[in-house]
Design brief:
The complex is a heterodimer. By secondary structure, chain A is mostly helical. Chain A has a domain of about 50 residues. Helix content of chain A is about 50%, strand content about 0%. Chain A starts with a helix and ends in a 14-residue tail after the last strand. By secondary structure, chain B is mainly alpha-helical. Chain B folds into two domains: about 45 residues, no CATH class; about 170 residues, no CATH class. Helices cover about 60% and strands about 5% of the residues of chain B. Chain B has a three-stranded mixed beta sheet. In chain B, strand 2 and strand 3 form a beta hairpin. In chain B, helix 9 crosses helix 12. The longest helix of chain B has 18 residues. Chain B starts with a helix and ends in a 20-residue tail after the last strand. The C terminus of chain B is likely disordered. Classes of the chains: A mainly alpha, B mainly alpha. Chains A and B meet through helix 1, helix 2, helix 3, helix 4 and helix 5 of A and helix 1, helix 2, helix 3, helix 4 and helix 7 of B.
Chain lengths: ~120, ~280
């Protein structure tokens, strides 16, 4: 059971938002682990990390800044923006008509494909 | 049941971590479900804490960082046309009010990227691969889906979890706020931008692309045609290499998108338009 608790604690993210919103909950579990003697053999929490996602180190994060050249390109890119009206006029020219489409809920009747498609 | 185990179960039950109705004496509760609940609550709280203005700011900076490596194709008519098509599709989404921006970038890869907040980049290789506007709508709709569902912010959250776990770092102890989140996302640069999302996110984006293309009046079967053509290309070399590092295989996607297409209500395969793609400089790789 100790192992279970250790794994459970390692799944609790100590992010800012979580800590602000539920720090009491996290702290309660952490104190609980201490009370039960868990943690003496605690494996590195990284072992429970989701596969394929790596962490962001503090050092590169501290140096991070937008690229000046890229920022110039963003300005150019934003100059090409299309308004709602321009988009709607383009759609009309291309014969596009917006239609209400949804996914059928599970268990309801599904749309059958047309012949030949 | 020994005393320690009994105490543990009572405490977990008190914290609401045992499934409701589970007898206190059972030891076979679904621990995986407990983990998922805890992680999902945490994730949703953190990602939700980034408001839309901040999301746009983060996305703008990330896109700026990425454009250093993927320069814009200097063709204003092409870029304006791409924006008209993209905005038309985005208007059919649940976040039509975002400041949507679309741009074609120089790269022979067949790929497209989405940054938080509504900036979407499409490679020249992709523009050269789609055969009509409906197929392009599926591609843009897929990327719009990532933005609508805030998939990249969720990846950031996972990265923060790993960072915190790996170094026993308590982000909360450093008073991390939105500025810290932004810096961390920037630190990942184009890697976060182009990083593979989990298969669930890619599948969700594929379905969103299909749905938005259909809502915008395009033939949803064009999405399947596009996927089928991708599936016929050799997957692990050349211009598709990067795409397959970050997406499920094209064959899986063909199956998933075909099934999703048959669940559409309000649009049948074959209904809708497939306007010819008249983007200039489609081969601007």
């Amino acid at each position: 059971m100790r192992i279970i608790l250790v794994v459970l604690l390692s799944c609790l993210p100590p992010s800012a938002a979580l800590a602000q919103n539920s720090g009491g909950f996290t702290n309660m579990l952490r104190s609980l682990s201490g009370a039960l003697g868990a943690g003496k053999d605690t494996p590195p929490p990284a072992e429970t990390a989701p596969i394929g996602i790596r962490g962001i180190d503090d050092a590169p994060a501290a140096k991070a800044a937008p690229s000046p050249a890229g920022s110039n390109d963003i300005g150019r890119l934003e100059g090409w923006a299309a308004s709602r009206g321009e988009a709607e006029r383009m759609a009309a020219r291309h014969g596009l008509v917006a239609r209400p489409v949804v996914f059928a809920e599970a268990g309801s009747e599904v749309v059958k494909p047309e012949a030949g498609k | 049941m020994n005393r320690r185990n009994g105490r543990m179960i009572v405490l977990l039950a008190a914290l609401g971590l045992l499934p409701s109705g589970a007898p206190a004496q059972t030891r076979n509760f679904d621990l995986g479900a407990v983990f998922d609940t805890v992680k999902n609550v945490a994730r949703s709280q953190s990602v939700a804490s980034i408001d839309q203005d901040e999301e746009i700011r983060i996305g703008r900076d990330v896109a700026a960082s990425t454009l250093s490596d993927y320069p814009l194709i200097q063709n204003e008519p092409l870029q304006r046309r791409l924006n008209q098509i993209g905005v038309w599709i985005a208007l059919q989404s649940s976040r039509p009010g975002l400041p949507w921006h679309f741009a074609a970038v120089k790269s022979g890869q067949i790929n497209a990227f989405a940054a938080p907040g509504g900036t979407i980049l499409v490679t020249g290789g992709m523009l050269g691969h789609v055969t009509n506007e409906a197929e392009l709508a599926c591609v843009l709709g897929h990327e719009i889906g990532h933005v609508v569902h805030r998939h990249h912010l969720a990846v950031l959250q996972k990265s923060l979890l790993v960072a915190a776990g790996a170094s026993a770092l308590s982000v909360s102890s450093k008073s991390a706020g939105s500025e810290d989140l932004r810096k961390r996302l920037l630190a990942e640069g184009k890697e976060v931008f182009t990083r593979g999302l989990d298969r669930g996110a890619e599948r969700e984006a594929d379905e969103e692309g299909l749905l938005l293309a259909a809502r915008a009046g395009y033939d949803p079967a064009a999405c399947v045609d596009f996927m089928q053509r991708l599936a016929r290309l050799k997957p692990d070399v050349g211009p598709l290499e990067a795409l397959y590092k970050t997406h499920p295989s094209a064959r899986e996607r063909v199956t998933d998108v075909t099934q999703a297409m048959h669940r559409l209500q309000g649009a049948t395969p074959g209904s809708g338009a497939r306007p010819p793609l008249t983007l200039e400089a489609q081969g601007g790789k």
